[in-house]
Here is the input.
Amino acid sequence: MISQTEQLRAFVGTRTADPWRASDDRLLVVAGARGGTGTSTVAAGIACVAAAEGRRTLLVDADEASGTHHHRFGVTPTSGIGALRPGGSDAASAVLSLGASLDLLPGGSGTSMDGTLGMAFAPAERRSVFRRLAPLYRAYDVVIIDAGSRIDAVLAAGLNGLRKCVITSGAEPASVAAAYAMVKGIHLTWPGAPVELVLTRTTEDKARDAFGEVQGAAGRFLGRTIGFGGLIPADDTLEAAIAAGTPFPAAHEGTRAAMALDALAGRLLAELDRDARRSMAPFRPTGRPAA
Here is the structure.
């Protein structure tokens, strides 16, 4: 909560707004209001549904320090997004095929499998990495970026354009406040960019109340609306399977969370298809001051 607020204050002092326009790429950024809100589960679930529909899908784990998606899918990377600093590895060489139309750009540097953490990106490095990644997106039908809960990482993930940002949040007060901070950060950068809030690990009533609080604040202070992405319920079966090392596609199959994720993913992908038929210029930010 404190960290998120401090990041937002720093962001407000250094950033300028650019009108939002949709990217040519079918790109979704999944962000967490704070850690532990199921961001990686939501991102992986959407990616699996997209691949199961036959779409060539890229899942990007934007956590350069470690990342978790390679564990979720049971693969051992030799490289990752953390190795893509200027002068580092080639972006395409870091991508792993998971089969069934699904590719993964892992988090970490590929050398963090011993349990140590990689070095965090400096702000300029992070932006450079995502600029280098942008040409990869053209090879895919849909790109899902798990951007984590840092505002600077979320904004870097959408630097080259996005179709929508999906924010995951719990219903407790600290998460609700952090979710609004994330909405505000995105809005102040790209006014009008589509944002929707997905509530996780709570009840339907509490999810509706939490969404109402964030939507109320967004309307009152920002003059905008956000979408309600629904509820992904707590699922002990899924969590236990993931903890036991079961690859995510098998771990989440048939679970309560899977049904909710499938519904969310199906709707988001249908919206991407609908929007792709419109003539929309790609978003290219300009005048961004150095961090």
User: Anything to note?
Assistant: The radius of gyration is 18 Å. The beta strands are 27-32, 57-61, 96-99, 102-105, 142-148, 164-169, 195-200, 227-232. The chain has one domain: 2-276. The first strand starts at residue 27 and ends at 32.
